[in-house]
Structure formats: C-alpha cells, structure tokens
Design brief:
Length: 153
C-alpha cells in the first residue's frame, strides 16, 4: 500500500470503486450459492470465495484507514469525531466478519451455508451504504479546501 497522500476526491473515487467491486463479489458469491442445488458449484468453492472476500475486505479497510481517515480528519471541525466513529465501526465489522466467515466455514448443510452467506451480504451492503452516506461523499471528501501548509510555508 502506498504511503503517498491522495487528494480527497481521489480517495473518494477509489473507495467508491472498491465498494462496487465488493458488491460485485457479493453478487457472485450469491450466484454461487444459488447453484449449490444443481451441483454446478460445490460448498468448497463458496467457502473459498468467502475467505477471498474477507481478504479483500481487510485490504479495503486498511486502505480506508490509511487514506480516508487523514482526509476526513481534516475535512471539518467534526473530523476527529468522525474518525473515532469510523475506527469503532471497523472494529465491529472485523469482529462480525470473523464470526460470519467462521459460520460459513463450519456450515454443514446447503441451507446453513446459504443463510450465512446471506447474513454476510446483508451486513456488508448496509455497512457500505452507511459509510457512503456518512463519509464517502462530495460533502466531506472534496478538494477545494486549502491545505494549511499553503500559508505555513
Ligand atoms: Fe469502511
Ligand atoms: Fe468501505
């Protein structure tokens, strides 16, 4: 992961595009579950896709912490408050993600597996929606704020 500071608008674009990729992976995971019945997909494939998704999500959250957190922190007077909230949300999401991926790993029937995948997909879609409402928008992540070092030299 790059240490280079990104412009807020660039952070916004990248986070949004990662969200769309995650949603795409969720849809593929659900399509996989739908094919468990006809045998085109087996439980092992669905489980492996879920582990892969967890890896992608960890990278995504690390990206947000490295790049979105600094941008939000400086966006306005509520920055530090929002940053605390984002870290708390991520801590909760990591816990919930571990719990759900464990459930997926341990699922012993197609119904169990389908239900766990559905819970995971519901959670991630609502997290993404909330995050975009609260942080990943043009109100908060925009470039027209003058950086303080312009004056500081
Ligand atoms: Fe996040
Ligand atoms: Fe996110």
């Amino acid at each position: 992961m790059s240490d280079e500071a990104l412009m807020p608008s660039e952070v916004r674009r990248k986070v949004l595009s990662q969200h769309r990729e995650i949603e795409q992976m969720l849809s593929e995971l659900e399509a996989g579950v739908a094919h468990l019945a006809d045998g085109k997909v087996d439980a092992g494939q669905v489980k492996r896709a879920a582990y892969a998704l967890r890896g992608i999500l960890e990278l995504h959250m690390s990206f947000e912490e490295a790049h979105m957190v600094p941008a939000i922190n400086e966006a306005d007077g509520f920055g530090p408050e929002r940053v605390r909230h984002l870290h708390a949300e991520h801590a909760e999401q990591r816990q919930e993600l571990d719990r759900l991926v464990d459930q997926i790993r341990e699922a012993s029937s197609t119904d169990d597996l389908a239900a766990s995948v559905e819970r995971l997909a519901d959670m991630l879609r609502s997290d993404i929606e909330e995050e975009e409402r609260e942080y990943v928008n043009e109100k908060l992540l925009r470039d027209n704020l003058i950086p303080s070092d312009t004056f500081g030299g």
